[in-house]
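Subject: sequence -> structure tokens, single chain

Hey, anyone have a minute? Need the predicted structure for the following. Not urgent.
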Amino acid sequence: MPTLPTASPASQGLCAERLARIDRFLHERYVAPGRLPHAQLLVARHGQIVHQSVMGHAVLPGGEVPGRAMTEDTIVRIYSMTKPITSVAFMMLVEEGRVALDDPVHRFIPSWRGLGVYQAGGAGVPGGGGGWVTRPTAAPMRMIDLLRHTAGLSYGFHQRTSVDAAYRKARLEPFEQQGGLQDFVDALATVPLEFSPGTAYNYSVATDVLGYLVEQISGLAFADFLQQRILGPLGMVDTAFHVSDEQAHRLAECYLAGADGRLAVLPGRSFREPTRCPSGGGGLVGTAADYLRFCECLRRGGELDGVRLLGPKTLALMTSNHLPGGADLADVSLSLFTEAPYRGVGFGLGFAMTTDVARTGIAGSLGEYWWGGAASTAFWVDPVEDLSVVFMTQLMPSSLYPIRRELRTLVNAAVVDSAA
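Reply:
Had a minute. Here:
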């Protein structure tokens, strides 16, 4: 598989002893006690891998299948780390002039032109009547709203409002759909918005809608677009919406933590068969090495090994804070559901980013950007320190442990020749 060159930590301004204590921390705090099934960490600086660690089991022993150790090429579910890839795909079309950020979504989804904002009601919703009572939006939903999660859409797992309940009842996630992306988008048109687009942040299926729009605008099936324009050119050879028969022996199990702390295999989709409804918000599987190549492409301004996905100006736009009024996520989000703090954090076009280091309470750099996945995976890119970091494991829910904050602290503590 394509990989990056390696270098000693000292040659790139990092302390080997401080990096080594990250491995001890992961082993003693999480893997040995059985809190995580495994842990894999890749740290690169100035385009060279300076630290990598792999520990634990891709498949825990004691189940119906034999245990299997975690390896460097183990394939995992990256869930919402799919979102930045989908966002890059959409912005490639923006760069080509096929769509603009201020275009109304109904330009390509006419059935959404009349979507209203929830007021009351809803068939089958507790307290609801036979239909929805809505009010008109103050402004149309625009493409930028999908990218920054200000569209008024939701996720059923939020369990906060009647709209969330309607999402659960109608199974409004691509994973739950028997049809294709068109059916998914049509179904979303039957439920009102949580709020008028552009007025608040609500983590949602918006990026799944972007996947549909990539398909409509490009004329290629969404999975084909990703393969032909991003995954293939970057050499992300193990990243896809399903695992082939030849790769199956490398797929990790995903685990769910029970009330007693014991790990059980997560039931549900196996990712072994192609899907009719590929999720741009959470449907990809891949390896740490693959995702590090994507991160490095971002760190380098949209290019890696002669392959350019985006121009540096577009990437700078994507990693700027686009929340209403330049606010923090902590101030405008309706649904903060992970363990990560959101003070001093903004959200751009597919990424969260640090807007005020002091307010985050975590050592870092102004402008570093990141996201994570539902199975506790994470990545971040620090353009100040020239760092790219990828962490993989397979534990749900991701809010159970503060491991993402801990890793940011530990990795940044190993930077002894700082550019800041």
